[in-house]
Amino acid sequence: MMPNQTTLRILLYKYRDFLFPVGTIVVCLLIMVVILIPEGVNIVNQENNVQVLRNDIASLQTNLSVIEKYDTSQLHLNTSRVNRAVPTSKDFGVVIDTLQRAANASNVALSDYTFQVGDLADTRPQVKSSTNASTFLVSVVLLGDAKSVAAFLRSVEHQLPLADVSDVKGTIQSAGVTLLFYYQPQTSVTVQATDNFTSLTPSEQSTLSTLATYDTIK
Amino acid sequence: MVQRRKQGETSERLRILSIRLAYIFVALTIVISVVFFILSRDSTAATLQAQQNQTETAIMLLKDKASSIFLLKKRIALASSILKSRKNYDVLLSSTLSGLGADTRVDTYSITSKTISVTASSSNLSSLNSWLDTLKTQTNPKGLFSKLSIDNFILDTKSGLYSLSITVTFL
């Protein structure tokens, strides 16, 4: 039942001294609920964003530092060395040169050689090895005894481009050797500032050092 | 009359309490508002955003160098996996032939991805035996070979040559 006007007046008169303080408290509570609490949430979110931004900037500055510190001439040298180790295409001239150098070093004569040619330029890798690199086979006939053939294999394995022995069949004075040469077409990359750039790890440095010992171009 | 006086005192206490509470609420609201106002005017986020943009721009100016580093690391990983996957066939072949005496001849040999097979002949049986002994010492869990098997042993009475065929399996 709704109180009538007279009752309201009586109540107002009775509690007139409480009207102002209670009204003030209600207004303050309203301000807190409607304005201050959402604003507080915003400030907390903003603080979180600031923390995220700080982390992002830290990683960006690490990236920038890594990129800036990498010596450009060393980068070119290393890039050309790894490209000689794993060429971007089937480079038969380099392969013939490698075979000839290995033959000279190991005292065997190169007789015949056969290349598995395939497509000379194709960005799609054709023969995939367990290492995920594309490969092509080169068969050579060597004139020399078993010890010279072992020396030839050693020489081939310690030169660039990287090659692996696939198959060897030898007799007293000659051997048929099939070698696996690796290549990997260059892929284009789109670098983002947010990508994770790191300096060369000790393992990567070690690989580069190994390749440097194989490289005839110092 | 005493009761009325007590009611009046209680009412007065409540009035004073409510006024104090109102002051506290007003003060609290003002303090929180001022603090939030100061915090919301904090320009750290904007400064950091500008710094982030600046750093990103600096990296993108070095885009070519960054791409080269990226590609270099990919190629190193590839070269590393090739180096790890290779077997030292020269060492394996040399080790297989290492125990051969001067009077022993290698007739045929073949290398596959897991084995080396050699056929050697000699007029001296002890030379072939000594070769086998050498291979046996290399066939153990810590050696080069996991298995040594004799495929064939022939004596050619016409030439007086002993011919021995063996296969070693790599570890």
Task: Please explain how this structure is put together.
The complex is a heterodimer of chains A (218) and B (171). Chain A has 218 residues and is an alpha+beta fold. Chain A is built from six helices and four strands; from the N terminus they run ααααββαββα. In chain A, a hairpin with a 3-residue loop joins β3 (163-170) and β4. The longest helix of chain A has 54 residues, at 16-69. Chain A is rod-shaped and about 130 Å long. Chain B has 171 residues and is an alpha+beta fold. Chain B contains five helices and four strands, in the order ααααββαββ. Chain B folds into two domains: 2-84; 89-170, Gyrase A, domain 2. At the A-B interface, α2, α3, α5, β3 and α6 of A face α1, α2, α3, α4 and β1 of B.
Number of strands of chain B: 4
Count of helical stretches of chain B: 5
Q: What would the principal axes of the Cα set say about the shape of chain A?
A: rod-shaped
Q: Could you tell me the radius of gyration of chain B in angstroms?
A: 46 Å
Q: Averaged pLDDT of chain B, please?
A: 89
CATH-level-2 architecture of the largest domain in chain A: 2-Layer Sandwich
Beta-strand portion of chain B reads 15-25%
Helicity level of chain B = 55-70%
Helix content of chain A: 40-55%
Question: What's the topology here?
Answer:
The complex is a heterodimer of chains A (about 220) and B (about 170).
Chain A (H helix, E strand, L loop, with lengths): L4 H10 L1 H54 L2 H14 L6 H15 L2 E7 L18 E10 L2 H12 L5 E8 L3 E10 L18 H13 L4
Antiparallel strand pairs in A: 1-2, 2-4, 3-4
Chain B lengths: L1 H39 L3 H18 L1 H23 L3 H9 L6 E8 L3 E8 L2 H14 L6 E12 L4 E10 L1
Antiparallel strand pairs in B: 1-2, 2-4, 3-4
Write a compact overview of the structure shown.
Chain A is an alpha+beta fold and 218 residues long.
Question: What attributes characterize this protein structure?
Answer:
A: alpha+beta; 2 domains; B: alpha+beta; Gyrase A, domain 2; four-stranded antiparallel beta sheet; 4 strands
